[in-house]
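hey so u asked for the seq, here:
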Amino acid sequence: MQDKPVNLEALVHYSKRFQRLRVDRAHGVAPHKPILLLSVIEQVRREIIAENRIYLSPELTQTFLKYWSYLGSFNHHPDISRPFFHMRSGKFWHLWANPGYLKLISSKEKLKTLAEVNQAIKYAYLDEELFEFLKNPLTRNSLITILVSRWFPDKFELVEEISQTDEFRDPPEYLRDSYEEFYNEQC
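ran it, structure tokens below
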């Protein structure tokens, strides 16, 4: 059985989307969206997400918090609900509303809490071609490389290690960095 050829034009399109994620920069670059994408990619690789429906599940939240413990920022809260809602600005992430919430999801209204997101959104889903790319090891690795090189430069090996474990970093990396910064300022 022969694999169908990869649509390189589409792969380049999603690579650019991953590089140009709209992130909050008010207190430094907020890593929420890249960390959410890494979490989804890991769950697709592990076949926890087997169909193109991304539920805001405890498993996804756990994976997000695991990545956050290594790659997160001291200046930001590890809140998965906002990137889950706002990732739609990337035009490849779509939201399926719970009954009675389609108008809210389609409006410019912002959902700000986990409870609001869970109440309004049944699940998110990706463009079908992107989901297929994430299931394919070759294209998945290409997209991970693009994502990591843009948002977490020089941390490719670390991201690979994170994807192979379920362990959290203790203390989280961002706390360790802040402690070292504080300690060096005191000396």
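DSSP finds ten helices and two strands in the chain. The longest helix spans residues 137-151.
lmk if thats what u needed
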